[in-house]
Amino acid sequence: MAHAQTHTPNIWAAAAAGLVAGLAASLAMDLFQAGIAALSSSDSDAEPATEKAADKVSQVVVGHDIPDDRKPLAGQVVHYALGAGLGVAYAVAAEYRPSVTAGYGTAFAAATTALLDEAAVPAVGLGDAPWNTTPTTHLYSAASHIVFGTVTEGVRRLLLGWLR
Asked: Is 137 exposed, middle or buried (0-12, 13-18, 19+ CB in 10 A)?
């Protein structure tokens, strides 16, 4: 009688795959947003939420804002650190509850859009409230996170295939 193979969760392999997947997805999201910006006629001078977050961290840690010429780099550090952390959390959760990968990462994308851009960012003063945001900004955010979620899932699956 043949026995079905059972999957034993490996938190360390999942975390490693999630870390790399989150970083790769952050890069993909950056490239997507740069492509959209190149096609857009918007001349927005608004400071990105990641740069505002970096300033808040700097104020707590060293007592002053980040110099303007270093803000873009600091914002990228925040973006990639958050992406890496989300990738680890997602991959570990997927190890124990494969249903979190629904829609090849699009459910994860929807959750990150809702929890981060629509709730947390405005709640901590890093962006406008959802009702004060244009529909195109909501669409841009959702599309960016779909890129992030699907790339996270694709890279996670690829790496776990190699690690197992």
From this structure: middle
